[in-house]
Amino acid sequence: MATRTGESRLSGAPALDQNRADDLLLGPGAFAMTSRDEWRSHFADRVKMMRARAVAVWAKSRLPVLVGAAVVLFAAGLGWVTDEITIQDERTVYTAECRGGEWLDARCTGHLVAGPRYRFRASKGSAEVSFWTVGDRDRSGRLAPCAVTNGRNWVCKPCPEAARTITLQMMLGQPVVDQTGSTKAFHAVPKWRWWTLRWGLAAVA
Q1: Which positions ≥6 away from 70 have C-beta within 8 Å?
Q2: What is the rounded CA–CA span in Å between residue 84 and residue 78?
Q3: N or C end of the chain: which has fewer CB within 10 A?
Q4: CA dihedral of 5, 8, 9, 10, whole degrees rounded to 10
């Protein structure tokens, strides 16, 4: 005798519970969801969680690299600004000129402008120092004889070529004013200040 319960039943077979049927079809404990919308919401949450974990792991692993790169860039920029990073055995002296006024010790009574850049290349082997003015088409000169320790420390004796440059001695990377009057007068400024003058940023300089 057939009973109308919304599903057919085999003769002598026990009724099958709907939850039990879901377990058999989907596997034990698989997605205890009662609707398709709940399954989608659960899946979206899982994706967001996995993405957040991946981002956290990436950031954690890349943080030391990013910090190291920032430190290197900062050190390189500082070295460039202070002119500590230069070609071996070369040194550049940045100067300023006083336009429309005069120098009173280290103070300009007129308008401060960027002056010439004098570059020196020391040679310990030949005991001489070559020099030239950056951007000037005039030929380079040579100071000799010189006692050269390195590009930042050297001293030369007076010679005819000395009148074309600003110093006969470099000490710790800084030009020493010649007291004999054999060289040009100059007013050295830091590299960063020279560039602000060159760009017309007199207020900053």
Answers
A1: none
A2: 8
A3: N
A4: 160
pTM greater than 0.70 (yes/no): no
Q: Which residues contact 66 (CB under 8 A, 6 or more apart)?
A: none
In-domain check, residue 2: no
Is it the case that residue 7 has pLDDT exceeding 60?
A: no
Q: What is the pLDDT of residues 120-165, one digit of tens each?
A: 999 999 999 999 999 888 789 999 999 999 999 999 999 999 999 9
Cβ-contact 129, 147 below 8 angstroms = no
Distance CA 84, CA 173 (A): 9
Distance CA 122, CA 88 (A): 9
69 and 105 share one domain? no
Short-list 115, 121, 79, CA closest to 95:
115
Residues 132 and 162 in one domain: yes
Strand 128-133 with 111-123, pairing? antiparallel
